[in-house]
Design brief:
five-stranded parallel β-sheet, 563 residues, Ntn_hydrolases_N, transferase, SIS_dom_sf, Rossmann fold, Glutamine Phosphoribosylpyrophosphate, subunit 1, domain 1, single chain, glutamine--fructose-6-phosphate transaminase (isomerizing), aminotransferase
């Protein structure tokens, strides 16, 4: 989202989807006392008006001495409390532009570097200093947005100020304790992404494309990491010994990333022999959860910029825990601030509802469990079986994608429903949560993922012949329990949709009134990767049939960069 406000010749552009100024009411009251008027209730309108207030005050105090643009912006930063990425442009300072950020995301793309005698941009070392003169600059909140223009970029750090003047650029570091910001040197990074990744190609929507890309994205996630009964994760190899001696492994995330961690938890516990707990980042912060130096905290975020997850990371670092990052975004804040980590390499994901990143996150966490458990003799046979089955997983996902038309037909039968329940258990409790979340996010339909073991503790009261209930009953350790759940729901005339393994339809469905989705059977820890795909397709088709925007759902953003 691009939002802008102007005031008396000062223009402020807010690049990010979400900007929160916590003290905007205090600043607003100050400005009103000094004669400023407001046209909206948005917190961002305070910023350009406060910049004008700073300019006028400094100009009055300095007299004929001109206040610089950088002085105006840094004083505004000194007063703002919250999370933001801002660009300032003003006719009072021609040929100048200033960008700054705090607690949000800001990317600077740099096109066509030159090795002029007076410049210090270099193709060799990519050192970024004050006097280089590239032809074009691009500001964005997402790397995917700049790839069609340039592959050279700089991820701006908190409290850094990018000052472009007369074609030259300088990076300044704002410090509350100092009157003037200090100049800093930064090195450019090179984006490993192709333009084709941000195009829809032959698909109607990005979400549709990303669902169907999963065989490829999973292949990319595993590429170079599976070797003769072993898993090699370069980002973790120097820390595996520490992880194996951890007191606990704590997975921390939000939304889809949390669900992916939930799917991986049973296998991580089984192979590592270490207690594994899960934390929603916001809840961990709210209650200031206990964390020890002997803990390994694993932070999962597709963007690597999720605000609550990053705050939880700071909390874990303060408590001395080993911090591991799992992200899809090279150069993200999460990737830079954790001690070690793994990139999921799923490719650029543009649709707000995460699909291919979710399945790649699960596979990365399974591989992480395999790497951690390499020294456990008791689990070697299972470990080797999983490693040998991983290369075929993309082919199994390709099989599931053939259910596309079947899921569209199911969506047509559900187009009028107002509520949907999804029951899962064991590894597929996470699948139930994630499937319901996808329907909720994009189809704007109330849907809830339920732990099937809790069915009699409330949810059973909702069952009638009109409420659609999806039960995930693929063959695993919980299969017989799920059969019992199906029978109980059928006895109460529930409107059943059952997901089962190929060939199991007759054993799980008590009558022809039960709708069946058959999927390939794989290892239990990998089954969530298979089982989520039909639910992703269902959510996609239900959204399109209802006429909603599947790539930009109402009120949601791809990266939640504020609390």
């Amino acid at each position: 989202m691009l939002e802008s406000h102007t005031h008396d010749g000062l223009l402020m552009v807010c690049l990010l989807r979400e900007i929160v100024i916590h003290n905007h009411q205090v600043l607003k009251e100050t400005l009103i006392r000094h004669g400023f008027t407001f046209e909206s209730e948005t917190d961002t309108e305070v910023i350009p008006k406060f910049a004008k207030f700073v300019f006028d005050k400094a100009h009055d105090e300095e007299g004929e001495q001109t206040v610089t643009f950088a002085q105006v912006v840094t004083e505004v930063m000194r007063q703002l409390e919250g999370a933001y990425s801002l660009i300032f442009k003003s006719p009072r300072y021609p040929n100048e532009l200033i960008a700054c950020k705090r607690g949000s995301t800001l990317i600077l793309g740099v096109k066509e570097l030159t090795d002029a005698n007076s410049g210090t941009f270099s193709h060799d070392d990519k050192t970024f200093t004050t006097i280089g003169k590239p032809k074009e600059f691009f500001f964005s909140s997402d790397l995917c947005a700049i790839v069609e223009h340039t592959k050279n970029y700089l991820a701006i750090e908190d409290d850094e100020v990018v000052h472009i003047k007369d074609g030259c650029v300088s990076i300044l570091k704002f410090d509350y304790g100092k009157e003037k910001p200090a100049s800093v040197q930064r090195a450019l990074s090179v984006l490993e992404m192709e333009v084709e990744q941000i195009k829809k190609g032959n698909y109607d929507h990005f979400m549709q494309k990303e669902i169907h890309e999963q065989p490829h994205s999973l292949t990319t996630t595993m590429r170079g990491r599976l070797r003769a009964n072993d898993v090699v994760l370069g980002g973790l190899k120097d820390h595996l010994k520490t992880i194996r001696h951890s007191r606990r492994i704590i997975f921390i995330g939000c939304g889809t990333s949390y669900n992916a961690a939930l799917a991986a938890r049973p296998f991580m516990e089984e192979l590592s022999g270490i207690p594994v707990t899960l934390e929603l980042a916001s809840d961990l912060l709210d209650r200031q959860g206990v964390m020890y130096r002997e803990d390994t905290a694993v932070f999962v975020s597709q963007s690597g910029e999720t605000a609550d997850t990053l705050l939880a990371l700071e909390y874990a670092l303060e408590h001395g825990a080993l911090c591991v990052g799992i992200t899809n975004t090279v150069g993200s804040t999460l990737a830079r601030k954790t001690h070690c980590g793994v990139h999921i390499n799923a490719g650029c994901e543009i649709g707000v509802a995460s699909t291919k990143a979710y399945t790649s996150q699960i596979v990365v966490m399974v591989m992480m469990a395999l790497a951690i458990g390499a020294d456990k003799i008791s689990t070697q046979s299972k470990r080797e079986a999983i490693i040998n089955s991983l290369p075929d997983l993309p082919n199994k996902v390709s099989e599931v994608l053939k259910l596309d038309n079947e899921m569209k037909d199911l969506a047509e039968s559900l187009i009028e429903v107002q509520s949907l329940l999804v029951f899962g258990r064991g590894y597929n409790y996470a699948t139930a949560l994630e499937g319901a979340l996808k329907v909720k996010e994009v189809a704007l339909t109330h849907s809830e993922g339920m732990l099937a073991g809790e069915m009699k503790h409330g949810p059973l009261a909702l069952v009638d012949e009109t409420l659609p209930i999806i039960v995930i009953a693929t063959r695993d350790a919980c299969f017989s329990k799920q059969q019992s759940v199906i029978q109980q729901l059928h006895a109460r005339k529930g409107r059943l949709i059952v997901m089962c393994s190929n060939g199991d339809a007759s054993s799980v469905c008590p009558s022809e009134s039960c709708r069946v989705i058959e999927v390939p059977q794989v290892a239990d820890c990998l089954q969530p990767v298979i089982n989520i795909v039909p639910l992703q397709l269902l959510a996609y088709h239900l959204t399109v049939l209802r006429g909603y925007d599947v790539d930009q759902p109402r009120n949601l953003a791809k990266s939640v960069t504020t609390q």
